[in-house]
């Protein structure tokens, strides 16, 4: 540990080095002197200085105000605080009674006027006026006003909005603007210092700082968020998250809150994901995503072990849409997708992100784990369509005869063979229908009407085949069944009594 006298003697040397760097014309961020710790002693570090970063990035951060055209005659004094309403709507906090009622759009009489409805932040992407922000900042606005740090104000037009990722691009007619430098979100480390600039509650050019708390937070279908403890409030939405090199690594988008205020957990959209979206928005005004037409779920650990997969990884296919790319490729309900185009699927949420970032029409390879073996299938990626709700349908009435035989009865099952009509309705080749359930099968979650497709990775087309497959299993070990429930498939693990 250096003494105070030693540190004092180092100061002229540090000043000399600093002066030499400045003489060479190299911009610097002031760093504290670090004392080298002796074994068993902690290293004491000072806090970083953000002043150079603010001067560097601040001119590129803008304030965005949204306006709504309304009819006069309303009582503006009694209008709810639009900043707080935006906060409530965005973060799922209950709206106070009466807030938001009496929509000025519905008021009759009076001249049409523009009324402020919200405020957010953004940052300049290009010197000719393209600006990135959040979709929820500009969505449904009749008019946008962008204010630069030098107090110049411009009317902006929306170039494109992507609600799935909450990214939007707007344009102002100006040249020679100071654009931000884009960083690499993949290089950030947990514990790294970061800074945010924005307009919380309309307070322009506010600077807050903190550290990266976590990476790859799964809070959305298409985005793994960056979690930080940087103070983010309503109005910060759309502003940049900046690293210590002065590069934008994310867009501040969400917070976690139980009280309605900042609680130390903020989320930012990784800039690499946002840039992919913005490039499409600038080119076509919309985002095109790939799809393959499957319903997926996580792979439980006990299912992975019982199937011989080992670790719980991949995406369990619960259903396949008719005439979809997945259906044409031969993907089946019960398959576990473990790779897409050679990229490993660790968690089920990885699959929609990889497929979504693939251009429709691309020929890809998808690897599935099916009945104890891996299999590569060729697939042509389709294009995402408007969301369609599907209603699960139960198979038609049973026309077979329940067979409460020995082995199945020992698990608490009474089974029947499927009729041709039931197979056609379910679009399955085989399987047996559960007529009643009790005991271990009931404890595992099986229900009347479920259709069992496989027993321990073995396909069964009749009660007789079910009994034969079950007879080969060790009665002291858990047994995995692939079942069909309505339009969805899932694995169920039945454990021996007492385990």
Secondary structure layout plus pairing:
Blueprint: H1 4-23, H2 51-57, E1 61-71, H3 82-91, E2 112-124, E3 130-133, H4 135-138, E4 143-147, E5 153-162, E6 167-171, E7 181-182, E8 193-198, E9 206-218, E10 224-228, E11 240-242, E12 247-255, E13 266-270, H5 271-284, E14 290-291, E15 294-297, H6 301-307, E16 315-320, H7 325-329, E17 336-340, E18 343-344, H8 350-356, E19 363-370, E20 373-380, E21 382-383, H9 406-411, E22 413-417, H10 420-426, E23 432-437, H11 439-443, E24 451-455, E25 458-459, H12 463-471, E26 479-485, E27 488-494
Parallel strand pairs: 7-12
Antiparallel strand pairs: 1-2, 1-4, 2-3, 3-6, 4-5, 5-6, 8-9, 8-11, 9-10, 10-13, 11-12, 12-13, 14-21, 15-16, 16-17, 17-18, 17-19, 19-20, 22-23, 23-24, 24-25, 24-26, 26-27
Describe what this molecule looks like in 3D.
With 499 residues, the chain is of the alpha+beta class. The chain has helices spanning 4-23, 51-57, 82-91, 135-138, 271-284, 301-307, 325-329, 350-356, 406-411, 420-426, 439-443, 463-471, and strands at 61-71, 112-124, 130-133, 143-147, 153-162, 167-171, 181-182, 193-198, 206-218, 224-228, 240-242, 247-255, 266-270, 290-291, 294-297, 315-320, 336-340, 343-344, 363-370, 373-380, 382-383, 413-417, 432-437, 451-455, 458-459, 479-485, 488-494. It folds into four domains: 4-46, no CATH class; 49-95 and 107-287, Thrombin, subunit H, CATH 2.40.10; 290-383, PDZ domain (Pdz3 Domain); 406-494, Pdz3 Domain, CATH 2.30.42.10. 20% of the residues lie in helices and 32% in strands. A hairpin with a 2-residue loop joins strand 17 (336-340) and strand 18.
